[in-house]
UniProtKB/TrEMBL annotation:
Name of protein: histidine kinase
Stretches for region Disordered: 292-311
Keyword match Kinase: yes
Gene3D superfamilies in the record: 1.10.287.130, Histidine kinase-like ATPase, C-terminal domain
Protein source organism: Cellulomonas triticagri
GO MF: phosphorelay sensor kinase activity
Entry keyword annotation includes Transmembrane: yes
Cellular component aspect of the GO annotation: plasma membrane
Taxonomic placement: Bacteria, Bacillati, Actinomycetota, Actinomycetes, Micrococcales
Transmembrane segments: 7-27, 39-62
Amino acid sequence: MRRVLPVVLVGVPVLLGLLAAVVVLVSGRSLRVLVGAPLPVVLAGSGLALGAVLAAALALVADRRRAVAAARMAGEAAGQEAGRGAHRRFLARLDHEMKNPVTAIRAALPGVVPDPHALDPARARAHATLQQQTLRLSGLVAELRKLAELETRPLEHEEVDLEQVVRDAVADLSDQAAASGVPRTVVVSMPRAPWPLPTVRGDVDLLYLAVSNLLANALKFSPVTSGVEVRGSEDDGVVVVEVADSGTGIPEHELDLVFDELARGEGARGTPGSGLGLALVRVVAQRHGGSVTLRSRPGRGTSARLRLPVG
């Protein structure tokens, strides 16, 4: 019925107009006699009336289409929010279920230390494996908890100098690499002319977390002998921080998957990590009204771009 209404609104006046024209042509009389007005005036008035009816009908159709589009967008937004809520509850439940057994295992391990006098290499290796994997599980639980909290924690809203955030993250990771005996080179390139990077508005701790995770990923998956570059730019009201490496790269079919929680690409197998780093970056970017994207070529390297609106 709703689809038929606009057709009726437009069609009825048109049919009436055509019928009037036929009557005039058949009768051969002047409408001056029937309505007391010249024929051009009558036709012009009829045309204006018909145009007004057509315009009103088309406006109704346009309003209907806009209402349908708005309702569809609202439904999609509600569905996405419901999905995010279910996801947050899943992460919180997973954290709760894993935390207690991992804590119990860590507490029990010191009591089952192999007898140093027994000199049983197999048992010693098994114990070392238990310790390593328990620490890994403990770190994973902590990362999951952090990810769940990031979805809901209130954000600080202050002017943030992203260049300073980048330099702080680079300094911290460089110090960690040097302390491990494997120093790394990170080149930072920031604009100076015609002006430096503008500030963004947000939570400086979360933005540091995002930049630090991008840098850690680049260092982890690139050769020790190669450098990592961090470049800053501004693009039409958006600040872009790009972290580029010349590492193993990511196959095209994995570019979207690596942002999922616990995702581990083919090139990451055998490399320590939880698979949550890029998921954390994505959540931080989205909560600041921004985004993160990847470009990569297997065997050549990867470029990660964090985009945030100017504050």
